[in-house]
Amino acid sequence: MRLELASRMMQFVEAKDAKIPAIGLGTWELRGRSCARLVEQALRLGYRHIDTAQAYENEREVGEALRASGVPRGEVFVTTKVWTSHFAPHDLERSTKESLNKLRVAEVDLLLLHWPNPRVPLSETLEALARVRKLGMTRHIGVSNFTVALMEEAIGKCPAPLVCNQVEYHPYLDQMKVREACARHGLALVAYSPIAKGRVRKDEVLARIGRAHGKSAAQACLRWLVQQGVSAIPRTSRLERLSENMEIFDFELSQAEMAEISAMGSRGGRLTDFGFSPKWD
Fold first, then answer.
1. Is-catalytic flag, 56?
2. Domains of the chain
3. Exactly one of 56, 169, 172, 192 is catalytic; which is it?
4. What is the value of pTM for the model shown?
């Protein structure tokens, strides 16, 4: 299957008035010229969802790639995230302007709070987040790494609609509580580390399921996410993986295959955890 066809078959995850491409490119740990080159190539191959963050220190390179690709700005869904040290209202607005300057765009499509920060009142941060949306710096707003309780608190306190919660999600981590809460409140779930930082590529169950469809273990994993209505943003530093991660729209997993993959998850499967992390569901 040609990648151009896969691009035309791209699916979307819809929440409120946001339309998020089901597959995107995560850019965590990508730096410098190699980051710009990879993002540019991804856009040329058909990717229309690019995820970055202030903390990744690569917004400038992502912006360079956006311009170099020749893809019209309106066709690319760009996400960035505000770091926790910028959650005070004035700092949030200032840092968002800096992100736009680095990206050299008038607005991003989605602006997220990167992690919870209990040192700043959530209501104040959310008011500032809604304000930058009202000022036209972002089309949509959301949160990342929020537990169900924090997500519901944020929904209740935010003056503008939140459209997503971006969290770690892959076959080894049971995120049913977060998924159900997102569905209940009309939020999209965006999955980072969707192939478990490469671990799925050596998984025998996923490899077997993938072979049944003429696909790889990673493709079976990404298809499992997309069929749940999840948007996945796999990161890769290898150009050859870009095509592989996109080519998941020409097959479908059976209910039995979906259930078998889901059964692999547990609460102990988390790969990204820090001292400042919230108490996970």
1. yes
2. 3-269 (3.20.20.100)
3. 56
4. 0.96
